[in-house]
Design brief:
By secondary structure, this protein is of the alpha/beta class. It has 2 domains: 1-30, no CATH class; 38-176, Oxidized Rhodanese, domain 1, CATH 3.40.250.10. It has helices at 2-8, 52-62, 109-123, 140-151, 163-169; strands at residues 11-12, 17-20, 23-26, 47-49, 65-68, 74-77, 84-86, 91-92, 97-98, 131-134, 157-160, 175-176. The N and C termini lie far apart (49 Å).
Length: 184
């Protein structure tokens, strides 16, 4: 009975979040801030949804950048060195750049700058350059990162919501990922 009542409540919380149908979003920004592994909507703001066969074609034809936004598993980036302190390895689609934690719903100033500067670096400042953003299947990190990249003015965004799971299921090869260091 209590669970039903909690899931039915919709309204602002004291910490700025809102409980909508049992899922927490930041009421000011619309980013998902909790329970990142859950069913996704059909679309992501500012992006075209793609599937595994589309990934290779976009990389080949449009020189699309592959951006892995899987969260880090460990102690995060070292505030002094910027190196990621990982407790678990991660594999991703060959040719990808891994920017851990940029798909979280709330980023501190350091991670905001990390995301922004790496997008600038990867695209050479061309905001119309094709970017494929992914994580794992049923992972809101990619949805948040797409929304964030669109807000930064990137206009050729592709969302691959099946991510590494869909790539592997399509018989795609995965390779060890090395996270980009956070510049202190």
């Amino acid at each position: 009975m209590l669970l039903t009542l909690a899931l039915a409540f919709s309204g602002p919380h004291a910490d700025g979040t809102e409980l909508m149908q049992g899922i927490e979003f930041d009421s000011g920004t619309g980013y998902r801030i909790a329970r990142y592994r859950a069913a996704l909507p059909e679309d992501a703001p500012g992006a075209s949804r793609i599937f595994a066969p589309d990934v290779e074609a976009l990389v080949k034809d449009k020189k699309a950048i592959l951006l892995d936004v899987m969260a880090s598993d460990g102690a995060g980036s070292d505030p002094v060195t910027g190196q990621w302190r990982l407790s678990k390895t991660h594999d991703h689609i060959p040719g990808s750049t891994w920017l851990p934690d940029v798909g979280k719903g709330r980023l501190d100033a350091r991670l905001e700058a990390y995301f922004r500067s790496n997008l600038e670096r990867l695209t050479g400042g061309d905001r119309s350059r094709a970017i494929i953003i992914y994580c794992q299947s049923d992972c809101w990190m990619s949805w948040n990162a797409v929304k964030r990249a669109a807000a930064l003015g990137y206009t050729s965004l592709y969302w691959f919501p099946e991510g590494t799971d869909g790539w592997r299921d399509w018989d795609g090869r995965l390779v060890p990922a090395i996270p980009v260091r956070v510049v202190p």
